[in-house]
Amino acid sequence: MGTALEWRSPALINWCRLLLDSFYRWTGRELLERVGTAEDQARALFTAPFVVVSHGTEDDPVLNYGNQAALDLWEYTWEQLTKTPSRLTAEPGERAERERMLAEAASRGYIDDYRGVRISRSGRRFLVEHAVVWTVIDQAGVCRGQAATFSRWSYL
Hints:
The protein is of the alpha+beta class and 156 residues long. The chain has five helices and six strands. The relative contact order is 0.17.
């Protein structure tokens, strides 16, 4: 994956905490069992058997986190992923639906029934089902980005 230990940086450990805290705030459920230190939880999130991916709040949001399952699915190294505008995870014909879904998640805090087609770096298409998309907020309630998680996908 390029820099395999990126998840150990203090900034990313903090980001993982925001991902987990925000997921719980919106859904009332834990994304994963929260045991141990913040670093232990960041490690558990990075190695989880389901996809977790997020982007920031830029005008054209850039991916800022993907666990190993996300890196594998989209066929990115950490360095490639974290330079990629998140809109590029969908084909041009799918981007309007993706934007609609992100806007709905932003207005409601989260959605838990997303289904859509995505595309990997090499052009491999896959259908995501039953994804949860949520707004990532900090302790003050300020929006810091959006994230998604899913464990069901099939190649097209």
